[in-house]
Amino acid sequence: MPSNPILICAPSTELRLQLESHLGDLGYATTSVRTPADAVSALRDRPFDLIVAEGLAVSGAIGGMRAASQTPAPMVIVAPAGDVEARIAFLEAGADDVIASHFTRAEMEARVEALLIRSGKVRPKGPGGGPVAGKITTFFSPKGGVGTTTLAVNAAVMLAGGAGDGRVQHVLLIDLDLQFGQVATHLNLSPRYDIAALCSDDLALADPDVAISYLTAHSSGTSVLAAPTNPEGDFRITVEQLEQALAILKPRFDHIVVDCGTRLDPRTLWMLEQADTHIFVIFPEIAALRATSLLLSFLAETATLRATTHFVVNHIFPKELLKTRDVQNLLKAKPVAEIPYTEVDLIRSVNEGVPLVTSRRNSPAAAAIQQLVVAIAGNEWKQPAGVGRDADRARREALRARGS
Ligand SMILES: Nc1ncnc2c1ncn2[C@@H]1O[C@H](COP(=O)(O)OP(=O)(O)OP(=O)(O)O)[C@@H](O)[C@H]1O
Ligand SMILES: [Mg+2]
């Protein structure tokens, strides 16, 4: 049930009670006032996600109510039925929607929901009536050069390939390695716009259709919000802007994969707090493991996390530096996947900008990345066409080669 705060402004007691009853039954938290002046006070007092106002009473006050809103709140105006002139005047004065006074409960519900979805305040419903996932998965490692970007990119591309049931998966890949992020390089993309540009465009932060234009499309279907093209862009991005950007984009995607890089700062910390799943990339070496333990203690003390945590061991060197059993003992958790050392293929895939899960779909590394994807997307996520039995065989061969 939604619980978005909605402000009702109507001098008519009958209309106020009707709206309170309709919207209250749907779960919205309503506050009712009689006059536009009271509405302005209420809006100054606290934020609302939406305003429903009786038109004739507020026709001269729409601008004032907008100005008083702490956060942009869409406005639905209840207008006299059949008065087309009034309808146009309300829209011109800044109303987002106009509904005739003899509205039905279902009509009001649909209009309110559509505006809340458009402004990113609620998620659209999925085919079964439940919310669309919009799941956020962060990739992070306290140590650089351990394959964080490689794994985030490959996981995103594999997710975009779909669950094998024909349903399209809308995947957004955000490069939050804000100084030198290389997601675009890994995908051979030349983004026209980047995250710094999106975050400094107030219009885009309020309108999902404009925000979408800041993304770069990859042939896999993944949409990329690229890191700043200039490291200086990093300094301009605030947590508040990031919060608005995520709120506006999130309803459009099933999965949001974020490459958080190696640096903890207010932006990455905030993103870790929003995540449903954390993937910590582990390089099997004592210093990297100590850094990860330190990171986990720090997060437990300072952040409000709700994510499921997974570790993935990435063998970026041919020599096994630490046994997986030792890694497991130190982390007190079983890694969800172990990416084998993939000498030429991975380096070539980065140089060519073609992710391994596309260029070497049947390789042991792609099979291991798939385990990671299943951990992110759940057991119902099946193998995309083509990875199937070949990947299973590849995984068995890899295990045999490692003598396990
Ligand atoms: N399993 C692996 N086997 C061999 N090479 C690997 C493996 N995983 C990653 N690499 C290679 O390691 C290099 C670094 O990878 P990547 O850029 O993904 O790391 P990163 O942790 O994101 O680095 P940075 O800290 O610079 O952002 C790349 O050349 C990549 O191909
Ligand atoms: Mg990286």
What can you tell me about this protein's structure?
- This protein has 404 residues and is an alpha/beta fold.
- The protein folds into two domains: 5-118, 3-Layer(aba) Sandwich (Rossmann fold), CATH 3.40.50; 135-401, 3-Layer(aba) Sandwich (Rossmann fold).
- 45% of the residues lie in helices and 15% in strands.
- The strands form two sheets. Strands 8-9-7-10-6-11-12-13 form an eight-stranded mixed sheet, sandwiched between helices. Strands 2-1-3-4-5 form a five-stranded parallel sheet, sandwiched between helices.
- Strand 1, helix 1 and strand 2 (29-33) form a beta-alpha-beta unit.
- The longest helix has 17 residues, at 286-302.
- The two termini are 49 Å apart.
- The model is unreliable at 384-396 (pLDDT under 50).
- Adenosine-5'-triphosphate is lined by residues 141, 144-150, 177, 182, 261-262, 314-316, 339, 341-342, 346-347, 350.
